[in-house]
Amino acid sequence: MPSTELPMTGLLQEANRLMTVCNACRYCEGFCAVFPAMERRRVFSEGDLNYLANLCHGCQGCYYVCQYAPPHEFDVNVPKTFAGLRTETYARYAWPGFLSSAFQRNGLVVSLAIALGLALMIGLTFGMQNPEVIFGAHSGEGSFYRVVPYAAMVWPFGLVFLFSIAAMIIGGARFWKATAGKAGAKLSSAAVLGGVWDTLTLRNLGGGGGGCTYPEEKFSYARRIYHHFTFYGFMLCFAATSVATIYDHVFGWIAPYGFLSLPVVFGTLGGIGLFIGPAGLLWLKTKADPAPRVRDLVGMDVALLMLLFLISATGLALLVLRETGAMGTLLAIHLGFVLALFFVLPYSKMVHGIYRLLALIQDAAERRS
Amino acid sequence: MSETSDTYDVLVAGAGNAALCAAITARRAGARVLVLEVAPREFRGGNSRHVRNIRYAHKAATDYVTGAYPVEEYWEDLLRVTAAKTNEKLARMVLEKSEHAVDWIQEQGVRFQPPLTGTLGLARTNAFFFGGGKGMMNSYFATAEKLGIEFLYEAEVADLEISQGHWRSATVRHNGDERKISARSIVIAAGGYEANIEWLKEGWGERAENFLIRGTPHNKGRMLRVLLDEGAHPVSEADQCHAVPIDARSPQFDGGIATRVDCVIYSIVVNRNAKRFYDEGEDIWPKRYAIWGRLVGQQPGEIAYAIIDSKIPGLFMPTIFPAVEADTIEELAEKLELDPKALAKTLDAYNKSVQPGDFDSTQLDGCHTKSIKPPKTNWAQKIDKPPFYGYPLRPGITFTYLGVEVDEKARVLMGPQKKPADNIFAAGEVMAGNVLGQGYVGGLGMAIGVVFGRIAGEEAARRAIN
Fold first, then answer.
1. Rounded to an integer, what distance in angstroms lies between the CA atom of residue B1 and that of residue A68?
2. Could you read off the pLDDT of B36-48 as tens digits, one per residue?
């Protein structure tokens, strides 16, 4: 009741209004973690609202069953408001701060990063090698490095990757500091495991048993399944790269590796996942009901999905054509896309993973106290 | 005026729970069904959009209810709240059939969830719809559309052509056009008349001007009026309506569940003259919820104010509008536009009458007042710890009781002889007064809607196809 907060504005104010309506109704508490978390509070601080917004998976279940959804005068549209607020948190906690504007026109930013990544890798390749090498067919140990020299691969990628990981960790830490602990919840290993489990399973896209009302009013598991393809595809690709790094640096085994080697098996499966997943999510977007969504944010989602899709498509093509004359060009393009992803990790939709994970850990902690 | 030829077997007027149960049942029996809904698609579903659970008889606990609720106990609950103002034959039929009703509506795609937080009193007896009533209605509509039931939204049934208990056609206004639609039988499931302020005035006088309507603005009672004018036999009375105290700042229509104010039992409630008028602590809130709407409606200006202090927030459901807040009782009175001296006097007298006791918000705690009228018999503790909070209250009308009498086949009974109509069936709020003549038991309306909706659909289809 007594409010010590400064007056809120914009989306925060709207989110605060909605949570007040929702907390007086509570019909949606079976859908996901957001509503039980809301019920643990009577008033909502800025941190609370940013936390709830990032706890929201955008399944839209609460929108379609809402007796107060527009055109009702209470105008309750939680998924849309939270989607907007989430993006504000991405910008707000981004590090370094001046790069937070990347979230304003994120589709454009990601596209520019792709252009930059491609230019860099193609430029380096063509600048450092003569055309016969690039367009020639290579095979056997070290064939990749004959086209793109080892140093051109390791240094840009290593540096950009380390910077991006650091930026994401700092952003996550800032988010955690600003949002967690308000409900007096104690962090425990069980809570962390619970949050990780909810992240890995996307339990909250279960919609209480029937899936979510996405892309439209019908209940469906499509989004959860395609997201799993994307996430696990990405993780397998990441595993492939990690194993390959160990092969190279620890055992001195030089890429490319055989079709049945661990890096290639991981990379192939991951690539297929990262091909099907983003394609499916993009396809769902084309069918999605615009009402519970923010039109301005479509660019951010589409750009990242396109990038992931292009990475997997060129990666798979590289696997198939790696002993032909197309390998050199394909490798440069594939690496260009990957470099672009490394650039935008902390400044694209990729960050939702960090904030979602932290919000789910916070939720698990609150549920256990 | 255009004519629609006889392409339908069953016409359903209304699109709430009872209407959709009737439409789906008739369609499954092979009838061609058209549903006429006066609301636009976004607001379809009548007051069922706002419901949250159904009370049904069951023999054991399930995923959704915590224990058995035998038909006999259900019947005793009904008998008590209605003071026997019920048609026992129809009532028992509803209660018995309610047992299968929940299975049936699940077969139609409706989903349930464990009881909502803070609804402990209903956890054993009532099953909660997943996402509430609009979620339930979405499932019905999806199933109905899949079955090939046709819908016309923003279609107002203005009149019915009835002669000697036989219905011939409906005059329907749609898209600025007026046309006649005929079918072989009709199901009237178009709700009550709580959104018709003029009609409410017949029972309540000018007071009705200040009533807020919790549900759809479309329940104007057109179908009920036509049926009564055509000689249908009425049940229950025009001054009966279900009313609860809601925040006076709520919209005039469609505010639904979120506008309720649940702090009455921990408060003192004063009228416009800053005077108390009823024992706020008479019983636990769920048992008194439904009398306070009427009590507020009987006060001057049809308004009242619940006053609490800073000990109370947190003990009741959060409210949609913030409480009016002040550091002194006089300041609170000014903000609520009450006479500060009068409110201070009332509060002072109340505080002096409070007897020592152990306050316990979770049960009848016996904390009471002494030598004050009206007394407060539970949860009486001094209101003395600033800041003070106030909620303005008005009666929020949920539904009306006056309806048409029906038989066990849901046929509308016509004339003083109560002759069953040939092809006119009624279900839902328009006939709920047969079972619930007065009083209230939460979730019964949905049971009546499902049971009579299914009967009406089945009988209407039988009448149409044979």
1. 36
2. 999 999 999 999 9
| Cβ separation B138–A217 shorter than 8 A | yes
Task: Give yes or no for B311 touching A (CB within 8 A).
Answer: no
- pLDDT, one tens digit per residue, over A333-343 is 999 999 999 99
Q: ipTM of this predicted complex? A: 0.94
> Looking at the domain covering B242-396, what would its CATH class be?
alpha beta
Please state which CATH number belongs to domain B2-238+401-465.
Answer: 3.50.50.60
**Domains B2-238+401-465 and B242-396 equal at CATH topology level:** no
Mean model confidence pLDDT for chain B: 95
User: Which residues from chain A sit within 8 angstroms of residue B257, using beta carbons?
Assistant: 24-25, 27, 67
Beta bridge partners of B212: B396
If you compute the radius of gyration of chain B from its CA atoms, what whole number of angstroms results?
Answer: 23
State the maximum Cα–Cα separation within chain A, in Å, rounded to a whole number: 75
With an 8 Å Cβ cutoff, is B118 touching chain A?
A: yes
Q: Do A42 and B314 touch (CB under 8 A)?
A: yes
Tokens of A333: 């393009």
Q: What CA–CA distance (Å, rounded) separates B211 from B197?
A: 8
E-assigned strand segments in chain A: none
Distance in Å, alpha carbon of B362 to nearest chain A alpha carbon: 18
Instruction: Read off the pLDDT of each residue in B348-364 and give the average, rounded to a whole number.
Output: 96
Q: DSSP of B39-108, one letter per residue?
A: S-GGGTTGGGGG--EEE--BSS--SS-SS-B-HHHHHHHHHHHHTT-S-HHHHHHHHHHHHHHHHHHHHT
Task: State the nearest Cα–Cα gap between A285 and chain B, in angstroms.
Answer: 22
> What are the backbone dihedrals phi and psi of residue B392, each rounded to the nearest 5 degrees, phi first?
-75, 135
Q: In chain B, where are the structural domains located? A: 2-238+401-465, 242-396
> Closest approach of chain A CAs to the CA of B248, in angstroms?
15
Q: Which amino acid is at A67?
A: Q
Tell me the nearest-neighbour CA distance from A2 into chain B, angstroms: 8
Closest by Cα among B216, B188, B174, B193 to B13: B188
CB within 8 Å: A1 and B310 = yes
Q: Which residues of B touch A74 (CB under 8 A)?
A: 258
Chain B residues within 8 A of A72 when measuring between CB atoms = 43, 254
Residue numbers in A near B138 (CB within 8 A): 64-65, 217
The reply to whether B135 touches chain A by the CB within 8 Å rule is yes
Residue A212's SS3 state is strand
- pLDDT tens by residue, B7-31: 899 999 999 999 999 999 999 999 9
Which of B302, B84, B59, B45 is closest to B189 using CA atoms?
B45
pLDDT, average across residues A193-197: 96
